[in-house]
């Protein structure tokens, strides 16, 4: 049971954010479009811990949830002295500018946790983070009977590219396709035919991975999305730079830098608008 420390009775359009670290926010560096606090955009979080645990079978990410939720004004994530950008902020900004009714606000329900995926049973139908996502969203919906979900923004796949090293292309493709299909089916079954948008990865990091593994995940998305309405994927991310490309002495090439994260959010929004127009 989720407990909200500061229930807000405003009418919210809810944007669900799910997946791993790029969805959680890890963007460093300068940006041409710095984030500015917006009274219309709030964020819903839950307190949790995530620690890497060594086991005889290898390292495992152990996630402990608390059920303690809180709402604050949406902002970049803080990590020590750094502020880290996440693409959902620029998505929400575009949504407020173009789609939000005057008497409503946006609530970003942030359920993403870095280092997670289908491969280690964090996400997936009936898995811990899927259940947690549903509990958080249900708690947000319960604050006001007029609250409504407008989109789910998903960014995940990096871990499933390199986990399960023994998988060949066919096995990895079948595994990811089955998991993504079941997850998306569950979301649509529970919340109706809500828009679902996902996105691609940092080019520098992808180029260092097994291309069979990369293609297994990409083709998994393509196959699953052929089955559903109101789904879209941001394929065009090759020009978006990583932290390692813009921050001196930084080797992090898996996470989009600050400027790229915000551009990614705008591309997610463009796909969202395409979904809306196609389903009028």
General description of the model:
There is one protein chain. It contains nine helices and ten strands. Helix 5 packs parallel to helix 7. Strand 3 (41-55) and strand 4 (58-73) form a beta hairpin. It is α/β, with parallel strands linked by helices. The chain has one domain (3-278): SGNH hydrolase (Rossmann fold, 3-Layer(aba) Sandwich). The chain has helices spanning 21-24, 87-98, 128-142, 158-162, 169-191, 203-207, 211-225, 243-246, 258-278; strands at residues 3-4, 12-19, 41-55, 58-73, 77-79, 82-84, 105-110, 148-155, 196-199, 231-234. The strands form two sheets. The protein has an eight-stranded mixed sheet, sandwiched between helices. Strands 5-6 form a two-stranded antiparallel ribbon. The model has no long low-confidence stretch (mean pLDDT 95).
Concise synopsis of the structure shown:
37% of the residues lie in helices and 25% in strands.
Q: Low-confidence stretches at least 5 residues in length (pLDDT < 50)?
A: none
Strand order of the largest sheet: 1-4-3-7-2-8-9-10
How much of the residues is beta strand, in percent? 15-25%
The DSSP helix count reads 9
Q: State mean pLDDT (0 to 100 scale).
A: 95
Q: Output the CATH topology.
A: Rossmann fold
Structural class: alpha/beta
Number of DSSP strands? 10
* Main pleated sheet: 8 strands, mixed
**Which value, in Å, is the CA radius of gyration?**
18 Å
Tally of discrete structural domains: 1
C-alpha end-to-end distance? 36 Å
Based on the coordinates given, report the CATH architecture.
3-Layer(aba) Sandwich
What CATH first level would be assigned?
A: Alpha Beta
Give the topology string: H per helix, E per strand.
EEHEEEEHEHEHHEHHEHH
What form results from the Cα inertia axes?
globular
CATH superfamily: SGNH hydrolase
- Estimated helix fraction: 25-40%
């Amino acid at each position: 049971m989720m407990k909200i420390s500061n229930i807000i009775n405003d009418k919210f359009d809810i944007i669900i954010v799910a997946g791993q670290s790029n969805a959680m926010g890890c963007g460093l560096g300068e940006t041409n479009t710095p984030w500015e606090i917006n009274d219309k955009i709030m964020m819903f979080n839950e307190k949790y811990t995530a620690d890497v645990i060594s086991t005889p079978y290898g390292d495992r990410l152990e996630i402990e949830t608390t059920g303690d939720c809180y709402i604050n004004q949406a902002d970049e994530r803080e990590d020590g002295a750094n502020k880290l950008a996440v693409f959902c902020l620029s998505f929400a900004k575009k949504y407020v500018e173009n789609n939000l009714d005057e008497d409503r606000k946006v609530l970003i329900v942030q359920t993403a946790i870095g280092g997670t995926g289908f491969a280690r049973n964090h996400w997936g139908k009936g898995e811990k983070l899927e259940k947690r996502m549903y509990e958080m969203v249900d708690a947000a919906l319960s604050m006001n009977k007029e609250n409504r979900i407008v989109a789910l923004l998903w960014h995940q796949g990096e871990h499933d590219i390199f986990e399960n090293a023994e998988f060949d292309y066919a096995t990895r493709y079948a595994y990811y396709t089955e998991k993504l299909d079941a997850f998306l089916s569950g979301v649509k079954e529970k919340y109706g035919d809500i828009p679902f948008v996902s996105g691609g990865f940092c080019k520098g990091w992808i180029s260092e991975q097994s291309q069979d593994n990369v293609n297994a995940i990409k083709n998994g998305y393509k196959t699953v999305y052929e089955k559903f309405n109101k789904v879209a994927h941001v394929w065009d991310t090759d020009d978006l730079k990583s932290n390692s490309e813009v921050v001196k002495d930084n080797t992090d090439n898996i996470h989009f830098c600050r400027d790229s994260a915000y551009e990614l959010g705008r591309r997610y929004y463009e796909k969202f608008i395409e979904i809306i127009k196609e389903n009028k």
